[in-house]
Amino acid sequence: MASSEENSPVGIIESPRLRSLVRDDSISPLHDFPPPLIDLPASIQFRHSINTSSSTDLEPESAESVTMADPFEVRMRFSSQLQHLNATVVSHQKAAAYAMKYKDMDEDLHSCILEQLERSNMNTRANIMFCIEHIMDMAKKENHLNYITMVQRDIIRIVDAVAPENASGAANVRVVRLVLQCLENKGHIENQVVVQIEEVLKDRETSAHDAGLSSPVQGDQDLGDMPPSQTIPKPGRPSAPGLDKRQIEQRIEEDRERHKRLREDIWAIRDRDAEIDRLWEETSDLGEDDHTMGREEFLAREAAVAQQCPHYTPRDLDDLYGRKDHNGASGRGHGNGTSH
């Protein structure tokens, strides 16, 4: 017995009574058995906790861990996702899902969006602008309207950050216009706000064209026919800011990816009622010409059916409008419109 006690970390561990208590699942360590007066090895304590705990006890802890997440860590991870956004829909949906996962911290995450819009480069700002659309879509789907309210409140600040007044924001004017149009169609932003922002974007687009950052109004296909005096910038004309080659290549690839996604969404009908309303608005009111055309088509159809079936008696306009007595019309063979 002495040898077994010397080999074990704690001498009393080899006791059959203690071994049965440690391995017995029916004994609760909090109620049925008082806490031991000795320090058990870590392996036995871990095994005992596994045996006495159930899977249902772990679920509230995991849910509580999500709710009680560190706000600083949540902000850092969300900021990292915004910094590494690209033109793919997957990255936008991932960031939007993260924002909805921690929707209890919506104000902090919204402030992260504003901070990254003011600190990041123009390519990242464009990606964040597209990501805002996905966040608002998910917020409306889950009926969490705080994100939509905060974006509506700070939409002017967001537009100024994505497409600033200086020449560097000229490349994002089209991005802002496209996202605002989508948000207006989905009902996230009122039309009056979009119209006011559009007036500001027109002025910035004009100033960007004067700075030589946007495409010519008539296109660039005739630039080769222009004399050098019109193609070379004048000395007094502001020049475009220096852009990194890597950023230019990245923007080209991202624009190509966005155009690909837009072509895929051309044939998608998001709301069936919208198409019906459009057809209803485009259709003219019913007039006398429509009635005349209907009567002519009715008589032509009756004549065509009578030619195909000799036993069929064609109906006239009185039958069409119900002005004939049913007793008088019943003696005309198949005057009721039936055919063989």
From TrEMBL:
Task: Kindly give the InterPro entries that the UniProt entry links to this protein.
Answer: CID_dom (IPR006569), Ctk3 (IPR042326), Ctk3_C (IPR024637), Ctk3_N (IPR024638), ENTH_VHS (IPR008942)
**Residue ranges, compositional bias (Basic and acidic residues):** 313-327
Query: A Pfam family matched by this chain, by name?
Result: CTK3_C
Query: Which source organism does the UniProt entry give?
Result: Verticillium dahliae (Verticillium wilt)
| Region span, Disordered | 206-246, 307-340
Gly residues compositional bias, start-end: 330-340
- State what protein this is by name: Uncharacterized protein
The terms describing its cellular component in GO are: CTDK-1 complex
Question: Which biological process terms from the Gene Ontology are attached to this UniProt entry?
Answer: positive regulation of DNA-templated transcription, elongation; positive regulation of transcription by RNA polymerase I
